[in-house]
Give the backbone structure.
Amino acid sequence: MSAGINVILGLMIIASFLVATPLHAVGQALMASWLGDRSPIAEGRLTLNPRKHIDALGLILCIVLAFQSTIAIMGYTLAAGMGWASRSSLIPGNCALVPMPER
């Protein structure tokens, strides 16, 4: 593998980010709604549409790092992409199935 920019590896990182981010966020929204919190449904987070879940800065950082950074560890070249999704809100007081601690 050359030390230059690996376009295929970068595109694979971006594609995996665009698939994994909505799946992860929908999983969080499903768990919150199963526990009784209706805020993910009210915010429209119970969808696989990436536009509802992806944060602009997190996506830009994923794209930049996908083409810029690789790490060589013990002779193997690993991709080091990083990014994040927009925050899902969970209101613990709305969860009917989780006991709240007494004060």
Observations:
- The chain has one domain: 7-87.
- The chain is about 50% helix and 10% strand.
- Residues 7-34 form the longest helix (28 residues).
- The radius of gyration is 18 Å.
